[in-house]
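ok trying again, last paste got cut off:
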Amino acid sequence: MSERNTAIVLAAGQGKRMHSKVQKQFLEIQGYPVLYYSLRCFQESPLIQDIILVTGEESISYCKEEIVQKYGFTKVSAVIPGGKERYDSVWMGLKAVKDDLPKEATEGIVFIHDGARPFVTEELIQRGLDCAKEYQACAAGVPSKDTVKIIGEGKKVVSTPDRSHVWNVQTPQIFEYHLIKEAYEKALMHDSSRITDDAMV
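nice, full thing came through this time. structure:
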């Protein structure tokens, strides 16, 4: 059975923290929408066979016509609506891997990536794939350059973690498909409101 790896690219964010009328994944950098850059990297990678693009219901036509078709992203196998929260959108993407792709995709590795992060590289994809094959799960991240404080009641500092142990987690986050799908199935049976990334699940 040939290896088949999938990128689930999330582009359903509303950009509420930016207070912008244009969602951040559709803002332009050097003439291209932010989303274009991560899709292009997955498109050009020989390690990725399929891309599932998850976006808002109102943005499906725009993504299909103005991004996927316009820029020739032939690996985009489906453009689907996301959910209310990020974890809902990831779950929709994971279900689409099973429902919309060949069976081999469910035996491969899945890359979950935020479409508003344009700086994914082929090196990062390769390292993530190697790591996931060895450990079943991994996430991109960088050591924190900031000092982090743990805050308790009354906004008083409780402790200061050793910065050498603190990392800022980014995407892609990479998993064996069956592992992350089963983890999400279990997580969504309970209160999921505190889920902020896939490795946490």
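cool. The radius of gyration is 17 Å. The first helix runs from residue 34 to 44.
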